[in-house]
Write a structure and sequence with these properties.
The chain has helices spanning about 5-30, 60-65, 90-100, 190-200, 220-230, 250-260, 355-375, 375-390; strands spanning about 35, 45-55, 70-75, 80-85, 105-110, 125, 145-150, 170, 180, 205-210, 215-220, 235-240, 270-275, 290-295, 315-320, 320-325, 330, 340-345, 350. The chain is α/β, with parallel strands linked by helices. It is globular. It has 2 domains: about 5-110, Peptidase S8 propeptide/proteinase inhibitor I9 (Alpha-Beta Plaits), CATH 3.30.70.80; about 125-390, Rossmann fold (3-Layer(aba) Sandwich), CATH 3.40.50.200. Helix 4 (about 190-200) runs parallel beside helix 7. It has a 7-stranded parallel sheet, with helices on one face. Strands 1, 2, 3, 4, 5 and 11 form a 6-stranded antiparallel sheet that branches. The termini are far apart.
Length: about 400
Amino acid sequence: MTEQSARWWVNRNMARERLRRHVEIIREARPEVAVDSDDPADMQHLHRDGAILVRDADLARVAAIIPGEVEASLINGVTLYRPRNLDTESALSEIDRQLGVGVATPDHALHIAPRAGLCPASEPEDVELPPYPSLNSDSASDGTGTLVSVVDTGFLPSLDDAKHPWLTGVTGDEEDVRPPLIRPFEGHGTFVAGILRCLAPNAEVRVEGFLTHGGAIFESEIIRQLGQALDRSPDVISLSAGTLTRHNLPPLSFEALWDYRLRHYKGTVLVAAAGNDQQRGPFWPAAFPWALSVGALDAHDRRAPFTNYGSWVDMYAPGVDIVNAFPDGVYIYQEPPHEGTVHEFKHGMARWSGTSFSTPIVSGMIAQRMSATGETAREAADALLAQARRNARPRVGAILKPT
């Protein structure tokens, strides 16, 4: 075996171990999460055990062949259904056979740690550095008058201090912390909000604490909560999470969200992470044509090795070694090669990588442009997409970077 081949096998096995550990973390927090494979390293998606999603128009047909109970009616168009005496895959296989593929789907789990690539793509590293991207000092493009909803793990008010002035005024659902221990994914939402605020320091930013259980949330839960976020009429929704799906089909709940809610909000844009699975298959909701999907660049304007890619990714923005606010405390590394290592974070800053962090860069640039031009969020997003396409590079794609 050549040295290159040996290195490939080591990296592959390490990635598989990382994925197994992350699935463990999610299932420890949410025991009802099921994996579609005996070995989590081979998983395609996570879902709620014993539940399916059905379009309201198909509910009677599904109930006729799969007896069960309606657990909840979600936003218009989709129902959460519990098959009686059948697991999710058995029920869906029978529905596929009799009614067609896609009539019903799993209640997928969206997560900030998808597959082998993970999101974030690395664990945080304690650093004593200024934020990167740096703080925008141009008052003509500071995000004034814009409202951004960050859908994430919640906000840490303790980081709104003299050391992190760019977080002043950020609001949202307070993240549950248990000092001095920093748990996996803790601080993720504040880190994302900090990136956005560095680019648009005067934007109104609210962090929605949806991804509080091991960084995962079911479709049926996030859809109702996104509906609540839309009640505030945000200009931008920044979502650093997503999922692969059964048969790569679009999630029914997000189809309904678009049909019955989001498309009626003329100025609102959903910016979504493209995911870190190192593959070209669709990652949802980023892959929807109405979402602005963001992959990650490295420091040399190449696609980051972890990012998803393909024609469904709209643009790529910096996503490697991003620096922003992070809580002080003790962190136990969960992943190879540092698994089990205990480290004390003491500088209030971290360096982190992933499409999770490329996403708020684009969201922040939309807010910047809105305040500078008076455009709506959709108009600003379209203009930035056109700019990114003008900067496209072979074997990369459209590139958008802060100035």
